[in-house]
Amino acid sequence: MKQAVHFGAGNIGRGFIGALFSQSGYHVTFVDIADQIINQLNEEKQYQVKLATDRQESMTIENVSGLNNMTQENEVIEAIKHATYLTTAIGPNILPRIAPLIAKGLAARVKATDDILYVIACENQISATDLLKGYIQEHLDEDTKAHLADKVHFFNSAVDRIVPLQNNQGSLDVLVEPYYEWVVEASESLPNVEGMTIVSDLAPFIERKLFTVNTGHAVIAYLGYLENKTTIDQTLADEKIVAQVQATLDETGSYLIKQYGLDSDEHQHYINKIINRFKNSYLNDVVTRVGRSPLRKLGPNDRLVRPAIEAKKAGLSYNNLAKAIAAALLFDNKEDEEAVKLQSMIKENGVPHVLKEVSGLDENSELTKEVLSSYNALKK
Ligand SMILES: NC(=O)c1ccc[n+]([C@@H]2O[C@H](COP(=O)([O-])OP(=O)(O)OC[C@H]3O[C@@H](n4cnc5c(N)ncnc54)[C@H](O)[C@@H]3O)[C@@H](O)[C@H]2O)c1
Ligand SMILES: O=P(O)(O)OC[C@@H](O)[C@@H](O)[C@H](O)[C@H](O)CO
């Protein structure tokens, strides 16, 4: 049986990428630090993926097992030696932490076989696989580095499926939305995985996804949090917030249409479809999940700051994106480590300094001034 090694047995890992591999005839070895999930995968050897609709359809995901990367290094290396695919869905900030073990796996593998290993990071981050490759290379010996081009092929990708926090402590089952899209940038044919789409240029796909789905999601999460809402669909019951999401997506849309020559009617259709996905009440997707890790989301290449900078460069409006950035700066969820750090940074040094440190924005830039003005208005 073909093998896939997938780092991150969380929501996207089990609910999307691992499930597609299993359904395509692969055995999936999940690698994670969560002992309970790993043990359960090894005991139960299957789980259900349930669709968040009124019909509650579900599918059984079989041929799965688990390894703990902290305590089972040798077993993970062995699994990498025999895999066709190595994928991750672990969070962009965690990639540097798993890179040393992947490097050990690659060093063992290139000695053992000439078969190609296909590596794909499935994270909400532009060029995540390139970043992962860079982290891995820091830990490779020269001999293994010399074999990489022949034997280990790296591909960037964009992944889209809303998988909320699971409300089923002690179960491996995962509730997911029915919609999914996995786009991989490759100039060669890859071993078949059902549901994977190959494109020659990922930029329009990942930017369209990140700056529509994730920008829109972030606006709802941060404004919803400020209005004491619990879930994304509840927040969208507020027409003012819906209008704000639409206005923000008009700004990212104008940039995307100009940059990639998209058809504006088709893009509007894409936006409408996404807002309908957000309204799915069966998902029960909490605003604190969608707003999680605000320092990452305020990064220069992420869903808020990058489209604002690009819109400004293109001479387009970015006021609503500035408001979204301001709302993110007000995310003070005490349960979120990055939100706690963000708030203490703002308290110590003020908003312009934080925008410089976290988002790479000049303290006197027009965007910083615009964000500051929205921040003060929202804070009242
Ligand atoms: N959930 C979604 O709707 C969704 C959709 C598209 C993309 N994504 C992206 O997928 C990635 C994962 O998101 P998620 O929602 O599945 O998160 P998650 O928290 O459910 O899963 C992450 C998993 O990584 C594991 N992990 C953390 N640190 C680790 C380490 N050092 N070593 C091994 N395992 C470790 C955790 O135990 C957890 O099981 C993120 O980049 C996210 O942006 C999520
Ligand atoms: O995963 P994050 O923290 O980058 O973003 C939160 C959500 O916007 C995200 O998980 C979406 O649900 C997902 O990207 C939909 O494809």
TrEMBL record:
Family per similarity comment: Belongs to the mannitol dehydrogenase family.
Boundaries of every Mannitol dehydrogenase C-terminal domain copy: 201-378
GO molecular function: mannitol-1-phosphate 5-dehydrogenase activity
Swiss-Prot/TrEMBL catalytic activity: D-mannitol 1-phosphate + NAD(+) = beta-D-fructose 6-phosphate + NADH + H(+)
Gene3D superfamilies on file: N-(1-d-carboxylethyl)-l-norvaline Dehydrogenase, domain 2, NAD(P)-binding Rossmann-like Domain
PROSITE patterns (UniProt xref): MANNITOL_DHGENASE
SUPFAM superfamilies per UniProt: 6-phosphogluconate dehydrogenase C-terminal domain-like, NAD(P)-binding Rossmann-fold domains
GO BP term (any one): mannitol catabolic process
Binding site for NAD(+): A4, V5, H6, F7, G8, A9, G10, N11, I12, G13, R14, G15
Keyword Cytoplasm attached: no
Record's keyword terms, sorted: NAD, Oxidoreductase
Any GO CC annotation of this UniProt entry: cytosol
Enzyme Commission designation: 1.1.1.17
Name of the protein this chain belongs to: Mannitol-1-phosphate 5-dehydrogenase
Domain Mannitol dehydrogenase N-terminal, residue spans: 3-188
Enzyme class: oxidoreductase
Source organism of the structure: Peribacillus cavernae
